[in-house]
Amino acid sequence: MQLKIFSKFRFLKMLVVALVCLFPGCKEGSQAVMWTVTWSPVTPYVAAGGYNNQVLIFDTETFRLQKVMPIGRGVLRMAWHPTEPLLAVAAEGPASRIINLKDYTFKQLPGINEGTRAIAWNRNGTVLASANYDENITFYSKQGDLIMEIDSASSKSFVAIDWHPYKDEIITTSDSVRIFNMQGEMLFRYAHRREDALMLCVQWHPSGAFYAVGDYGDFDFGYTPLLQYFDPEGLRIFSSSVSVAEYRNMSWSADGTLLATASDALRIWTKDGDLKFEQRSQAPLWGVDWSPDGHHIVTSDEHGKIKLWNDRAVFIQDLVY
Questions:
Q1: DSSP annotation string for 284-302
Q2: For the sheet containing 136-140, what is the strand order?
Q3: Parts of the chain with a pLDDT under 70
Q4: 134-168 in b/e burial notation, b at 16+ Cβ within 10 A?
């Protein structure tokens, strides 16, 4: 696939558009955009956060609010540790941290100055990776200590990151898809489409055989947002232009059979790319995650709502805070 590099102006324009909800016009009543929501694989918690500058913890027995933790800055992405009650928080400015849910203490992550919205644990939770707005990639122990920092070979900010399911490699998105190893070597780089379109989310399939990418499109130029699957060599194996809004987030079910995507609707796709279920949302969806057992999905949206759905995209209830 031929590589096409963004102009700096074009990339900054799209990044500004993607971050436009910093401003009060993106608030519904007193509730700001809820950027992210994530379901713990090992503890009975769902965490949510956004421009309310807090992390909200709900228990998954009653789905009632259990704890509110002020962050002081916008919360843009979160990731649960795979085996322990640790929550990594990607936030604006220097506010990114790891929270221990046993006692609600936290360790602020060093080396992140401009903020990040790209954070992920490796498969066994020994390393946390953050690909940051200031164009560096930082790695941390589960205690939050800085292990190393690498030059990303990018002059653009990162907006998404994921670990390979069984290799010590990370995949990142910004103007291009990039894959790095733990030695800081860039193994792969390519553009995901001919048009300039910021990629907001990326996730490896649990098998490691391919990954999914969702982008913003470009509404000024009439570029439709795309959901695409690629193999490790960058060969496109599936593409859909069904969404009329950007793909903000995505989540594979634990068994890898289904992919849930957040855009103008909650959509549930098969691993072969078939659209299985779809439910339009009153407000654009920003966060999405599966329950560990694959029976439920939780979403967050532009109006600050957090919603629980079943595995057929049927709405069940709001999570009230």
A1: -EEEEEE-TTSSEEEEEET
A2: 119-121, 128-131, 136-140, 146-151
A3: 1-31, 152-155, 219, 221
A4: ebbbbbbebebeeeebbebebebbbbbbbbbbebe
Distance separating alpha carbons of residues 42 and 139, to the nearest angstrom: 23
CA pair distance 54, 14, nearest whole angstrom: 26
Q: What is the pLDDT of residues 166-214, one digit of tens each?
A: 999 999 998 789 999 988 899 999 887 777 778 999 999 999 999 999 9
Q: Would you list the DSSP string of 205-249?
A: -TTSS-EEEEE--BTTTTBPP-EEEE-TT--EEEEE---SS---E
Q: What is the DSSP string of 302-321?
A: TTS-EEEEETTS-EEEE---
**Cα–Cα separations (whole angstroms), residue 166 to 51, 87, 160, 181, 199:** 34, 21, 19, 12, 23
| Each residue's pLDDT tens digit, 34-72 | 999 999 999 999 999 999 999 999 999 999 999 999 999
Burial class of residue 193 in the structure, from the number of CB atoms within 10 Å of its CB (0-12 exposed, 13-18 middle, 19+ buried): middle
The confidence score (pLDDT) of residue 90 equals 98
**Residues 275/286, Cβ–Cβ less than 8 Å:** no
- Supply the pTM of this predicted model: 0.90
Pairing, β 86-91 against β 97-100 = antiparallel
Contact at 8 Å (CB) between 266 and 248?
no
User: How big is the chain by its Cα radius of gyration, in Å?
Assistant: 18
Residue 110 has phi, psi (to 5 degrees) of -75, 160
